[in-house]
Design brief:
With about 575 residues, the protein is an alpha+beta fold. It contains 17 helices and 27 strands. A hairpin with a 2-residue loop joins strand 18 (about 430-445) and strand 19.
């Protein structure tokens, strides 16, 4: 099979070639206006597929098709927003030559207009699929899955690239070009307009049981979803899609420019694209992780319902996701399964199972959440991952009733002056071994109070679902201090990882965030806890570990000579 990729050495085309590297029997023509760059890309190639460099301007596509006779053309060049009256030249050339076509187009008008060639493509016996990327193929697949359980009314989604991923110049030209310009979308049940990059929302990408991304600022972008998805869902009234590039202060500068252009009728900021491209690709700091989300509200069985889908990509794997849709289609074609003839948006090209198979080869994780505020707190925060907890952890957390568990613990205390002062202020227990411990769980107006009694010394905290920037985090409050914790399940252990903290609601700097490894686990049929609280410039404040069992039945769970998990035998220190 021979594939001609326009923009073959660029950001998206190059990554597509990498994803197809393991496929023998595949010949890829790496095309672009620079033969030197095409040759350099092919010279560095490692893989079973064969690569050939080719200098080609998209305006000369008809001659190239006649000479090279590819089986498939992939347009990975762009920006598709700037092709003007000749924007469909590659498509018409492919239909004339009887060659199948796919593209990465992210321009809503371009993708929406491809259907005008539907009858022509069917008569030629070829398929023309446009917008074959994360937006709208992956989002459409997610929404079809959600529609199994509810009638979808409103949709919002967004993509948040890693700050280390890099942004191509063509993508930057497209984004800066429509900043402050009207964008077609679906709002209040009909066609409407938003303002590119001038409308913003916040969201936390949080795959159940995984460490969530930081709460991210997303702004409205011009993607095909806004026009091609609503017709597929008759009940849909609103759709909004955004991007959340970081660092946030540069993102907010774009917001201000977009609002100024919209307010004062300024010309396009596209000439500034090289500047923003250079700055964004040099301002690389923070977590090397990216993500995506789709959230839908609707009705099921006559009642309101909200679902969200989350994607988390670690390290360098996130930038491959836009190219995976075309990768999946090519792999299906090599197996004899081709899209039906016709010209259309690529929204129905794949389903989530197709993506899941590709994600498993990368550090890419996904999961659904249903908003269920009436369920127990940990089940609410962990979503479907709650059922993956060990039995004892599920038993302790899967209740909203008052209850008590008891056991024994070993306690260590920090010896510094500041550590002792903090321990005294909060009421942390004294150091000791084989210390009797009980924990009473008491519901309190949407929260749960944990009162811990270590050998007669009590201290308590309240736990609740985080709100705002702490969404999907466990908010635990000790007096005037609130720590927002991520619940991460790995290897049967539930880790509680500090992500944010506040004093009287005022956020504190992240570098001062409490440290220490804290987790819950199950050993020998017992609930085990291991908590360590340390602070920068202070060191260890307190650490305690031990075991708990339901107070009413503790005797039947542990014999008199058994040592609880993680607790040393010996006298109290």
């Amino acid at each position: 099979m021979k594939i001609l990729i326009l923009g073959g050495y660029g950001v998206f085309g190059g990554r597509l070639a990498e994803l197809l590297a393991d496929m023998s029997g595949l010949e890829i023509l790496v095309c672009g206006r620079s033969l030197a760059r095409a040759e350099a890309f092919c010279a560095a190639w490692r893989g079973q597929a064969q690569l050939r460099p080719l200098m080609l301007d998209r305006r000369d596509i008809a001659d190239a098709l006649r000479i090279h006779k590819p089986d498939l053309v992939v347009d990975a060049s762009g920006p598709f927003q700037t092709y003007g009256s000749a924007c469909y030249g590659v498509i018409t050339a492919c239909i004339d030559a009887g060659i199948d076509y796919l593209d990465f187009a992210d321009a809503a008008d371009f993708v929406f207009g491809v259907s005008q060639f539907d009858e022509w493509a069917k008569a030629a016996g070829v398929f023309v699929l446009s917008g074959v990327s994360s937006f709208p193929v992956l989002t459409a697949a997610v929404l079809r899955e959600m529609e199994r359980t509810m009638d979808i009314l409103t949709v919002e989604g967004g993509i948040a690239p890693s700050p280390y991923a890099g942004i191509g110049l063509n993508v930057m030209r497209a984004v800066v070009g429509y900043a402050g310009a009207p964008i077609k979308l679906w709002r209040h049940g009909g066609p409407a307009h938003g303002v590119g990059l001038a409308e913003s929302r916040r969201f936390t990408v949080a795959v159940p049981s995984r460490l969530p991304l930081r709460n991210i600022h997303f702004s409205l972008v011009d993607v095909p979803d806004l026009q091609v998805i609503p017709p597929e869902h008759p009940s849909m009234t609103d759709i909004w899609m955004g991007a959340g590039p970081v660092p946030e202060f540069l993102h907010r500068m774009l917001n201000l420019l977009a609002k100024a252009r919209a307010r004062f009728g300024l010309p396009s900021f596209a000439p500034l694209s090289p500047l923003f491209h250079a700055v964004l690709n040099r301002m690389r700091f923070g977590e090397h992780r990216g993500g995506m989300f789709v959230r839908a509200q609707g009705r099921a069985a006559g009642r309101p319902m909200e679902m969200s889908w989350h994607l988390l990509a670690e390290g360098d794997d996130g930038p491959y996701i836009p190219s995976m849709a075309i990768e999946a289609i090519v792999r299906k074609m090599m197996g004899g399964e081709c899209p039906l003839p016709g010209a259309r948006a690529g929204t129905d090209a794949l389903n989530l199972a197709d993506y899941d198979r590709l994600f498993r080869s990368k550090t890419i994780y996904t999961g659904f959440r249903r908003e269920e505020p009436d369920v127990p707190l940990f089940r609410q925060l962990l979503g479907p991952a709650f059922d993956d907890l060990p039995p004892r952890l599920r038993e302790l957390h899967d209740s909203k009733d008052a209850r008590q568990w008891s056991g024994v613990a070993e306690i260590r205390r920090g010896q510094g002056i500041l550590a002792r002062m903090i321990s005294a202020l909060v009421g942390f227990p004294q150091a000791g071994k084989q210390v009797p411990v009980s924990v009473t769980f008491t519901p309190e107006k949407g929260k749960e109070r944990w009162t811990r009694n270590f050998g007669g010394r009590r201290f308590s905290s309240t736990q609740s679902a985080g709100m705002g920037k702490d969404r999907y985090l466990l908010a635990e409050r000790f007096g005037i201090v609130t720590v927002a914790l991520a619940l991460v399940l790995h290897g049967g252990r539930l880790a509680l990882i500090p992500r944010r903290w506040h004093v009287l609601g005022v956020p504190l700097p992240g570098f001062l965030l409490p440290k220490g490894k804290s987790f819950e686990s199950q050993e020998n049929g017992r609930f085990c806890f291991d908590v360590e609280i340390s602070l920068p410039f202070v060191g260890l404040v307190v650490a305690y570990k031990g075991t708990l069992e339901p107070a009413a039945g503790s005797a039947k769970h542990r014999g008199p000579d058994e040592t609880p998990c993680g607790v040393s035998s010996g006298e109290e220190a």
